[in-house]
Amino acid sequence: MTEIGHFIDGARVAGTSGRHADVFNPATGQVTARVALASKDELQRAVDGARAAQPKWAATNPQRRARVFMKFVALLNENMQELAELLSSEHGKTVEDSKGDIVRGMEVAEFVCGIPHLIKSEFTEGAGPGIDMYSIRQPVGIGAGITPFNFPAMIPMWMFAPAVACGNAFILKPSERDPSVPMRLAELMMEAGLPAGILQVVNGDKEAVDGILQHPEIGAVSFVGSTPIAAYVYAEAAKHGKRAQTFGGAKNHMIIMPDADLDMAADALIGAGYGSAGERCMAISVAVPVGEQTADALIQKLIPKVEALKIGPYTDSAADYGPVVTKASKDKILALVEKGVAEGAELVVDGRGFKMQGYEDGFFVGSCLFDRVTPEMDIYRQEIFGPVLSVVRAKDYEEALSLPTRHEYGNGVAIYTRDGDAARDFASRVPIGMIGINVPIPTPLAYHSFGGWKRSAFGDLNQHGPDSIKFWTRTKTVTSRWPSGIKAGAEFSMPVMR
Ligand code: NAD
């Protein structure tokens, strides 16, 4: 049995708390490793190492910091297959999908190779007589990140790449369900030349998270996970005087207008609804065809495509998607499907009886498609996070627009149409953070920022892109005067420039 400890001061160390969690291969249902759950003392050790290493790293010039990321990107490429297989073996997603997880994180590492330019300051010469004014961005000091199971490579990199590039030390608390890839990422950062102590990985559960939130030396906390925990982390971090950005759950709609290319829309729904077994925060889980004719035609196109989806273990390169992450997730998804049936939605593709031959103990869930879902139903209101797509029929555009508008979540949304006016109106009026126009999963690239609205995100600065540089640094503004010929004497009135 593999034992996974922590990564502190440049090396793997065993856990000492005596508490562990099981790590499963979701395809077989077997326990493959035990991950240590850190105590507050172990967290303190990580903070001590981070505090000792950070000033020297912050004083390292930004080109040198960038070069670590250049090397890191090269190492990610060299180790891509090994990392992807390791990721799939704990998460369950297909190996190709795991490569996507790694590449989307790697793009953030590529983005921060531009840190010398990104962190440049603003300067005003001659703000007054003999006066210059400039604003500089300095690292927060020690930052921390708490990440979910569904992107164990991308989301840690969303956080540690800009935090570390900005000159911070960083403490990563990955999901306890798939901790192996985050540990490898820390090793690769060391191999790329990062000094020991700058990237610490502390595995754990609520105890480690609470330790981070209460720790007086950790200045900023980034969180991605479910909404109840995101709300908790945001409030607790604020209570302890920390800067926080926390990202939560989602219910992403796709509006299909009567003029849309229905084949394109149906294919987009299949990929975005069922890819990664629906375990993506940007998955489409609600399709909203506008008008009965559109709805009937769409359903007819979707049914055979959903029925044809190939489910399999990550070792099957032909699989469209794999198992969900845990037995508890599988049970929760199936319970919600039962609820949907009981609430009167029409289960037009029923995956409830699905069994994966040869993998009977795996956490596989068959593909489900619901028609005639209404906004009052639990399957509409809750995030299912599984291979279940709900169709909510809207009579017209305004009714379709009102659905994502009124939903508690506001992560992503898409509209499929050939009508530029409708698309433009939609993008302007819908209160959602990320909008796709004929694009099902509008996840911004690394040089833009990622974040939802409403109860999908708390805090005002988003992940990666320009926001991340602001989040992981503090602004200091310097006003300087080098006077020549300025008269002596105190000034008592408010200084103004006229
Ligand atoms: P989760 O909330 O269960 O766990 C996230 C992190 O919080 C983990 O590191 C976990 O150890 C920690 N945690 C869990 N319970 C805790 C508690 N009581 N107190 C303190 N910490 C706790 O989420 P998950 O199941 O790992 O991930 C899936 C969720 O993440 C979904 O809701 C999904 O939509 C969301 N997600 C959101 C985004 C986004 O950008 N908005 C991206 C990916 C995933």
Automatic annotation (TrEMBL):
- Gene3D superfamilies given in the database record: Aldehyde Dehydrogenase, Chain A, domain 1, Aldehyde Dehydrogenase, Chain A, domain 2
Which residue range or ranges hold the Aldehyde dehydrogenase domain?
A: 16-478
List UniProt keywords, sorted A-Z: NAD, Oxidoreductase
Task: Name the EC number(s).
Answer: 1.2.1.27
Q: What is the enzyme's main class?
A: oxidoreductase
**GO terms, molecular function:** methylmalonate-semialdehyde dehydrogenase (acylating, NAD) activity
Family annotation (PROSITE patterns): ALDEHYDE_DEHYDR_CYS
GO BP terms: namely: L-valine catabolic process; thymine catabolic process
Protein name in the entry: methylmalonate-semialdehyde dehydrogenase (CoA acylating)
Species source reads Aureimonas endophytica
Q: Which gene encodes it?
A: iolA
